[in-house]
Amino acid sequence: MKRLTIEDAENACLGGGVFACGGGGWYEHGLQNGRLAVTLGRPVMVGIDDVPQDGLIITISATGAPASDDFEMWPRDYIRAFELVRDAAQEQTGLRVVGLMNAQNGYSSSVNCWMPAASSGLPVIDAAGDVRAHPTIKLGAMGYAGLPEFQTMQAAVGGKRDQHMDLELLVKGNLFRTSNIMRAASVQAGGFIASARLPLPVSVVKQRAAHGSISAAIRLGEAMRAAQPQGGDAVLAAIVQATGGTWLGRGRVRSMTLRTEGGFDHGAYSIDTPEGEIDLRLMNEFMTAERGGERLATFPDTISVCDAASGLPLKSANITEGREVAVLHVHRNLLPLGAGVLDYAAYPELEQIMGLDFLSYLPEITRPAPQE
Predict the structure, then answer these.
(1) What are the residue boundaries of the S-Me-THD-like C-terminal domain, all occurrences included (predicted)?
(2) Parent domain of 74
C-alpha cells in the first residue's frame, strides 16, 4: 500500500505526459485534481491483490478530444460520475465497489480516479485499461469490444454551466452503443466530459488490466524531475532509461495539421531529422510513426513527442512548425498492456476512421474465427 502525496500527484502528471502520446488530458488539470485529492482525503494506491476479491472496480476517465478548449470539468464532476455508476452497479449486482482505477495514463489521466477515491475512501488500484493513452473507449474496454452481448453502464458529467451546456447522464447497454453515446455527450458538453464506466469484478480486472501502470508513471515523473536541473538532454536521457525506449529521431517540425471532428482530434506531423523525415499520424494520440513509407511504430507502442530544449513531453496542440523536438518510441512489449489494446474487435473502427492499417503490424492480435 502506498499513501499518495502531492509529490506523487506531480510525478504522475509529469510521467503520465510521456504516456499521454500527445493526448491524455492536460497537465494543469491533472495537477489541480491530484493535489486536491491528496488534501481532500488520504487516498492510497494498492495492488489488485490487496482489495476484497468479491467486489467491483470502476474505471474513471475523461472522454473527448484533447485539443478542445471549450469544455469545463470540475473535480466534483469525476466524483459525481463515479457515484452514478457505483450506485447503479451495486443495486444491479448486489456487490460492493472496492476500488477505482484509471482508463489510461496521461497528463491528467494518471490521476483521474484519485478525486473520487479520496472522496469515497476507496483505494486507487495500480492498474489501468492501458499504460498509454488511447483514443476510443473500446480500446480501453479490457477485451469486451468484440462481445455485442456484453452489457455495461457508463456515466458522464460536465460542461460549461454558464452556457447551460452541462450534462449528467447514466447509460446502460451494449458497450459499442453506450460508448458512442458518451462520445456524443462529450461533443454536446463542449469537447470533453468526466466519465465513469465498466464496473467489473475484481477477478476480471485482475486478468485484463495493465497492472503497474500508475506506479510506472510516478517513477518516470520522479526520474524526469530529478534530471530537470541538468537540462533538457538530461530529461530526455532519464525518459529513455526509465522506459527502455529509443529515440526515433530529433529535428524540427516541418509541417503539421490538427483538427477536431466527431469528438476526436485528427492530426499529421512531419519532422525533419538527419536520418530522414518522420511522419506521425494522430487520433487524439500519436498512433503511428513512419519514415520513407516504412512503419517505425504502431499503437499500442508508446509514441511521444518531447520538446528538445526542456525534454518535456508535448501535447499535440502545442507542437508548432519550426519547433525542435525528439520522437520517443517504447515498444509495446516493454510495458504492461491491457486486454483492450489486444482485442481485434477494437481495431476495425480505428482503421476506418484513420484510413490506416494497424492489424498487419500487430501479429499478436489474431482475427477471431468466423462463426458457423
Answers:
(1) 178-330
(2) 2-214
Asked if 124 and 111 touch (Cβ cutoff 8 Å), the reply is no
| Exposure b/e, 240-274, CB count within 10 A at least 16 = b | eebbebeebbbbebeebeeebeebbbbbebebbbe
Closest CA to 64 of 177, 185, 178, 145: 185
pLDDT in tens, 292-345: 999 999 999 999 999 999 999 999 999 999 999 999 999 999 999 999 999 999
Q: Does residue 98 lie within any of the structural domains?
A: yes
Could you tell me where the beta strands, DSSP code E, fall in 262-370? 264-272, 278-283, 285-291, 294-298, 302-307, 324-330
Number of domains in the chain: 1
pLDDT in tens, 5-20: 999 999 999 999 999 9
* Percent of residues, the chain, with pLDDT higher than 70: 97
Q: Three cell numbers at 260? A: 477536431
Kindly report the CATH number assigned to the domain that includes residue 155: 3.40.1610.10
> Structure pTM?
0.94
Query: Does any domain span residue 279?
Result: no
Residue 313 DSSP label:
B
